[in-house]
Amino acid sequence: MEIHYGTEIKRKIRNPIITTGSFDGIHFGHQCLIKYINRIAAHENGESVLVTFHPHPKKVLFPNQSLKLIQTLDEKIETLEATGLQHLVLIPFTKELAGISSINFLRKYIIDAIGIHTMVIGYDHKFGKDRQGGVEFLIELSKYYNFNVIQIDEQQVEFATVSSTLIRYEITKGDVEKANEYLGYDWFLYGTVEPGTRMGRRIGYRSANLYIADDCKILPATGVYDCSALIAGKTYQALAFIDNAAVNNKVRVHILNFSDEIYGQQIRIAFHRFIRNKFQFYSVTSLARQIQSDVEKVLLD
Questions:
Q1: Cβ proximity of 20 and 127 under 8 Å
Q2: Where are the chain's structural domains?
Q3: pLDDT tens track for 142-187
Q4: Distances (CA, A) of 196 to 192, 244, 254
Q5: What is the value of pTM for the model shown?
Q6: What ranges make up the beta strands (E) of the chain?
Q7: pLDDT in the model for residue 165
Q8: Rounded distance between C-alpha atoms, residue 209 and residue 217, angstroms
Q9: Has residue 246 got a pLDDT over 60?
Q10: Which fold would CATH assign to domain 187-300?
């Protein structure tokens, strides 16, 4: 996948098959769009292109709202690379860009910068100032600029229309299983291992204290989660302990059958399911007993 920035396209793209949007999470609906443009690109001897924005438009338009995102930019790129998408165009989102009309946005950032053979959009996609640009607008414009327009239907999982907003809601309430169904993969985060209190070591259950550098990254509800940890290319079963993570951007992880020193390393944690709420423990013995029960639950299920 080639990555381009703004209007600086590295090379001429052959018969561009384009979709556009914020694409937070690269969820099941996004994946359907990308599969569709990949398929058309193969049929039309073209190349698939996603035009997206960074930072997320809502972070610029509503700076006082504490919007948390499913993915950081690096995580988005990692997920997109697995989809077979050929080109990612990252447009810096600013207040000035938000004021550009739909037709001027399309001319500057797509028609003039990339070229266009086919535009594929989601069922509710709008773009440009005040979200004026939709499928009707594109169909009218396509007659003048000679490109195809395709709108795909909404994508549902268990009768729910998949959206980034819905997935953020499920993560914040702790239902990562439901969020994963909508995403089409296990939601994950990256954190850098920092020294902690070493309480886990004293009770026989060492833990890695992860600092999440991006303040915009969404974190799940307080509790204990069944996870997996990817460290130096190897995957381990793990437990994640979330306690006030939304405030301190930290996650504590007990990695099963692992004892290496990994301070300073960045590791990837994929969340599978919620195990239990946070409990108050009044002795080290009762805490150790509960963690052992958590470990057994992960190993048995």
A1: yes
A2: 2-161, 187-300
A3: 999 999 999 988 888 887 899 999 999 999 999 999 999 999 999 9
A4: 12, 15, 13
A5: 0.92
A6: 2-5, 16-20, 47-54, 87-92, 118-121, 148-151, 156-157, 160-161, 188-194, 208-211, 223-231, 234-242, 250-255, 266-276
A7: 95
A8: 17
A9: no
A10: Elongation Factor Tu (Ef-tu); domain 3 (2.40.30)
